[in-house]
Amino acid sequence: xxxxxxxxxxxxxxxxxxxxxxxxxxxxxxxxxxxxxxxxxxxxxxxxxxxxxxxxxxxxxxxxxxxxxxxxxxxxxxxxxxxxxxxxxxxxxxxxxxxxxxxxxxxxxxxxxxxxxxxxxxxxxxxxxxxxxxxxxxxxxxxxxxxxxxxxxxxxxxxxxxxxxxxxxxxxxxxxxxxxxxxxxxxxxxxxxxxxxxxxxxxxxxxxxxxxxxxxxxxxxxxxxxxxxxxxxxxxxxxxxxxxxxxxxxxxxxxxxxxxxxxxx
Length: 265
Ligand code: CIR
Prior knowledge:
Layout: E1 10-14, H1 34-49, E2 54-58, E3 74-76, E4 81-83, H2 92-105, E5 109-111, E6 124-126, E7 131-135, H3 141-151, E8 158-162, E9 174-178, E10 181-184, H4 186-189, E11 198-201, E12 213-215, E13 218-222, H5 226-234, E14 238-242, H6 245-248, E15 259-261
Parallel strand pairs: 1-2, 4-5, 7-8, 10-11, 13-14
Antiparallel strand pairs: 1-15, 3-4, 6-7, 9-10, 12-13
The structure holds citrulline.
């Protein structure tokens, strides 16, 4: 089996804007500290770079408080990229800001442009064999159907799955660990969507660390979830912990902070 779902030469990130304090959140657990978020963000970028990848750091976009969460603006595949149409009205314009960055790196960039289509990258998990998309408050059936049609000729099959109620994105509750293994909360795995994959569950009470990323030889996960970290280490993964307390106040985790890809030469 290949490993193109977790080996990448590039990542795109965007510096947190001062307006992040107005970012979207399901529950108000306090105002994020911009200084601490910047520290965590630079630790995150350093970790990605330590694998040898090229990491683009885009300037902050004050008009869009949530723009640090670049993952939601695009789906990056080996054959090309697709610019999303975020379902959060305050985030819709972030996708257009990302499009030229992708055009500079990819030969082919497509766009979700149906007026009724909404889809955010956080709802999409690309594995070695399929693209899983969770319908959510941000991603609707029209968005999923349009994306499926737009990537079919690149050889990617879409499977619609379920985002648990009250959970922001499908990937809030799961991550790819390698070609056949997923890190998932028990509540998401219980839906049966990972049949055929090996699944490692987050430890009880540590559901908030399900959003991790496998990036080359490393698994980046939020700091402070020791029991899940120990499970991953015991399973043989090279784990790097990154502070995520400030992004967590805005329902963000490791995957949201980057687009990860290998553009076709
Ligand atoms: C939002 O609600 O859109 C942001 N505050 C958090 C986005 C997190 N993105 C992600 O999980 N891919």
